[in-house]
Amino acid sequence: MTEDHSPALTRTPLTYGMVGGGPGGFIGQVHRQALAMDGLAQLTAGFFARDETRCRETALDLRVPQDRIYSSAQEMADKEAEREDRIDFVAVVTPNHVHYPICKAFLQRGFHVVCDKPLTLEIHEAEDLAELAEKHGLMFGVTHAYNGYPMVKQARAMVAAGELGELRYINGEYAQDWLWQRLELTEHKQAGWRLDPKRTGRASTLGDIGTHLDNLATYITGLTPTRLLARVEALVPGRVLDDTATVMLEYEGGVSGLFWLSQAAVGHDNGLKLRVMGEKASLEWSQEAPDTLIIKEPGGPSRTVSRARGPMYPEATVYSRFPSGHPEGYLECFANTYKAFCSTLIKRKAGLEPNAADLDFPGVEAGIKGVRFIHRCVDSSERGAAWVDFAGD
Amino acid sequence: MTEDHSPALTRTPLTYGMVGGGPGGFIGQVHRQALAMDGLAQLTAGFFARDETRCRETALDLRVPQDRIYSSAQEMADKEAEREDRIDFVAVVTPNHVHYPICKAFLQRGFHVVCDKPLTLEIHEAEDLAELAEKHGLMFGVTHAYNGYPMVKQARAMVAAGELGELRYINGEYAQDWLWQRLELTEHKQAGWRLDPKRTGRASTLGDIGTHLDNLATYITGLTPTRLLARVEALVPGRVLDDTATVMLEYEGGVSGLFWLSQAAVGHDNGLKLRVMGEKASLEWSQEAPDTLIIKEPGGPSRTVSRARGPMYPEATVYSRFPSGHPEGYLECFANTYKAFCSTLIKRKAGLEPNAADLDFPGVEAGIKGVRFIHRCVDSSERGAAWVDFAGD
Amino acid sequence: MTEDHSPALTRTPLTYGMVGGGPGGFIGQVHRQALAMDGLAQLTAGFFARDETRCRETALDLRVPQDRIYSSAQEMADKEAEREDRIDFVAVVTPNHVHYPICKAFLQRGFHVVCDKPLTLEIHEAEDLAELAEKHGLMFGVTHAYNGYPMVKQARAMVAAGELGELRYINGEYAQDWLWQRLELTEHKQAGWRLDPKRTGRASTLGDIGTHLDNLATYITGLTPTRLLARVEALVPGRVLDDTATVMLEYEGGVSGLFWLSQAAVGHDNGLKLRVMGEKASLEWSQEAPDTLIIKEPGGPSRTVSRARGPMYPEATVYSRFPSGHPEGYLECFANTYKAFCSTLIKRKAGLEPNAADLDFPGVEAGIKGVRFIHRCVDSSERGAAWVDFAGD
Amino acid sequence: MTEDHSPALTRTPLTYGMVGGGPGGFIGQVHRQALAMDGLAQLTAGFFARDETRCRETALDLRVPQDRIYSSAQEMADKEAEREDRIDFVAVVTPNHVHYPICKAFLQRGFHVVCDKPLTLEIHEAEDLAELAEKHGLMFGVTHAYNGYPMVKQARAMVAAGELGELRYINGEYAQDWLWQRLELTEHKQAGWRLDPKRTGRASTLGDIGTHLDNLATYITGLTPTRLLARVEALVPGRVLDDTATVMLEYEGGVSGLFWLSQAAVGHDNGLKLRVMGEKASLEWSQEAPDTLIIKEPGGPSRTVSRARGPMYPEATVYSRFPSGHPEGYLECFANTYKAFCSTLIKRKAGLEPNAADLDFPGVEAGIKGVRFIHRCVDSSERGAAWVDFAGD
Question: What is the pTM of this model?
């Protein structure tokens, strides 16, 4: 860890509130443990569940003070805004359809926000949040947390340094199988809202995992799609939203891309993989073996680079925590996203200038792009897999 | 090996001639060594190269009798047809554009034929060969040899037995990088003709490796595409034919598919991989680790099945040669293709009925389908990646 | 997570102090982050470094109250013992040679202790600590943290349930290469004390990583060695302590074992691997891919079992945090060790009965066994690799 | 393939006879197919089985002339010696205990010999064969065929070129599980003789696979053991010979070594693996993925080198047959061993000088060393795992 980074920052930690994250969910606990890892922010307020008892029990478990347990997001925004010791930021970890009003409420009261992805149901909603944040001078993070893996940062740095030469092709996939059958017909809470158009929007799998793939590809290559063509489908009979999509892309500079994503691909756990091929070398990264990066050159060996085994680019090194061979995982990538967000915020509060590593977290622009990705894929698919331009609303 | 299969057949081996396969090539030697492995056919005649000296030297190395070294395919077909000890079949291992006239010449003289893929440049040419073979009652094999791997046969048998349940998605890729730069501008013999539209047809990579992928997918699943959509492109600037293609497919019964293939994908050797996902299980096979098959079920472990370690389906067992852990490779898959072809032919000559294992080699219909695949992809791509029906000329 | 486990426990968290863990070290930060993950204990006191400024800076970074920053372990034990809000336990993360006096000081003042491994330099010292803990009714944990991985617990449960049948052979290795050259001649802090007989004892690598291997083998199989034979050596010329050892073991019931361990094995990161072979099945686990367990049976496929993908034994499930495919790593295994220790302690304080999962952390007996392992290997090696009984002082 | 190597040699192929290799065996067929691959030798005589009918049927299948089917090895040696067109060499593929008399008979009649391993039951027998071969100026090959893999030759060349620096440790293992239960009590032919002391000698597994490991380690490193210490045991209760051995070795120059070998290690197919660690780099090769070699350096990536993907040492290139990604396997490694033997013999017959690649096959000295390895391990184990010198009878 660099000198000017986290250590001293722990002396003036932030406070945060959480909306969502009650019993039965998964991601709320991830946000909290990720934030606990570096000691940069303490949970101080919360509206965890609509059910008052469940909300209160969660708050007690988390040692949130009694007077800062709220019964709605709006109430929390309003009341925290009045406190002198108001929370520094809010973490929004609810189902998709309420991201927009909740984030808006907090931004309007002057709170920095971190929100889960996909950011909103509609593109204009996401853009609206961006405008609000801009207008109020607030930070807005979106937890495309897979960017937080050190070897993802190493990959990005390699591409930026030209180690791959001119890029030629981006091949990504994200395959899971937990929706291999109609789990949405059971009591399964996650499947329930994720496959309900009212709560998840025009698409399910595209939003849940497709946006991660889109984000990761752009994060590593620095390229934005110019147009795409998609077949969005449900492999499981009877399903009303997508569980699978196949997407051809064109990126800036004429680089071609391909995404395949599915949550009904029997045999896959959480298989997010990306290959970037350049004229001089290719790289390959897989979320399920996140501590390694594979680099190949024409006529040369396949090099498996372990995190921290040898020199890495500084932007990767700063987010590597343990010696090589001591596996880092999902929690660390999430913690790194928050570490950047919190470091920036602590420095801003102290009147200091955040450095490049501090600023290395996905912001509201990444959130907008994710929502656009969903809509463009559905647009294309509805036209029979026609090319559609990526830009625009 | 089953009782009625190869052993006894070696007592009355076949003779064959070869067209092509002179110095500098690669595949001719593969055909010959594959045929030598089981002792079912002996090389007895040949036209190996246009250059007379090179042709003769090759023939001498291969101990082909002096009087059966020919200076053209037509001459070989004509003269062999007149001999009492005429060859049983011919193996055609030339560049693509001369497959058609050569195969035709031999069929017309009553010879069984084995030809490399892609079978012809035009669909109607391939259909013409099929008609000729049919008319003369001749066998016609096409060396989509990857079908010869025992674990491919095991995969096919598993699908046929319903172990995967209803199929849902076929995801295949075939990536190489030997054409990562414009090798066709050098003296490289293979790159020269493969990227010359006159000798290779409308497409290069699609024909060279795409047809293998198409064939393998159909071989394992039993499904034929009904329509497809393709982006056919050259990643290497200035190249006049394709080195890469991305193909969305629809198969019979509404099964979706995706192929990605490239010979300019830096970092890939000979990466032919296929995943078939069903409602109950998925399978995964990779040509570079051909002795294993990976089977996965929802909520279950990933099972890596080694060839011959435990019971396999009989159609796989019959083509497995060594105990588990004793790697079989590329030569064995090729040898298995020829073993089937020769076993069938020996039995036919002896008035015996070939069994299912004998008949398990790709025939002229596979050859036609390969040529159709190439044309359909190019057709679609030329229309901007529009859906095109697979059937038809 | 089970109902009666962690959630409610967070409402009455523990406090702890730390000895060691100042700047330049590695493991102190691991202990602290592991403890932060579950919110079961808060750092409240510390003696982090001999240098007063470094100690104070560290304490400030960690928000330890000014009046609980100490200048010696003894002072901390004495003064904390006098406080009403005295810490619940101490975490000892110093070099090996001072474990004994420090632990002793805290035990004598009635504090529960968690200490790094190897526990002490001499067997009788470790036994002395055990007696003290016993006498005072105190808990004593030793961070053989690799036991904390869920798939290690799954492995242990499988063996206990008889899934492997009678055990036949235990084959373990632990290979690193960070001591591939004489790093101890540089300013490298860790290498300095680890290769200094005064601070590390009779053996270096045997203590640092060999004890983990010994502990893991016994944890998973439930078997203790009855005798062993060892070649203890330095591969790097000039080194005064061991960097490598090869150990043949005999376990209870006549099960054979083999360990190979090295910190000069060029090409290895943190390669702790264990294979346990039984009459019916074998298992294989590797620390660098900790979320999977490989199970094999005669004549059957190799099954790669992913954490949380399907049903696991309850003792593994309770320590699995994220869905399958969301990698857990080194920090989680450490956190699990502390989670068990803290859960037990919180329940004891509340007059509740800890359950089996709570008690699943390595205690002082594991610490004694580790020290004995070191001595037995050196004893054997000094006699030219003769068999020595494992038991005794 | 180099200019002066195989091509021209096929014009004057050798003839050979075979002793053993009848129905029910495995290795005879391997020898024959390996020899068929390069067309350097033709099977012309044979004594395949004691049972006359089975011998004759095999001969007919293999198209051996009727007058060269023999009813004993001695008869074959005698009668072939009298023929003008006598065979050039004999391949001996019988159970171990008759290797000695058979090889002796052929050497005494002036035939070159290739014999399976382990060469003989007793060291002095093997030495006797070496003397006979020397005396009569005859070639003697022993099929330690795993040396034939191109990446093994690449490994050897890398070590010889100093790419690993001073060697430090050799860690080899060879694990199978086909003898995981008492198969020798069934009708299983191989298990029957391999676990019968009369036919297999003092040790079973040590001879069957241990000798391969010993040979491979020496082949790659160029080092011979100076002393060893072994625990030789049967994991399967009731077994009269070994199925497992653990061996510590000391090599010339003080390099340490460790072998673990078992045929009752549930979960292993044919797991021959070798790691060689030097001061500058390490290498790792596994027979089950023979086309790759893994090279690692301190602080660097793990490099997986694919056969023929990039430049290799000439001694490896000459035995590489197909482009990278086209798997070679067990048959090719065997074929390479014979290719070397036959090339040497053809050149000797033609008065030409064999080159280094031709001479790269294991000879009678390798055979003697293998027998010595078996005896030394058993000697050590019988003394309770004491160190024994490797040299001597």
Answer: 0.96
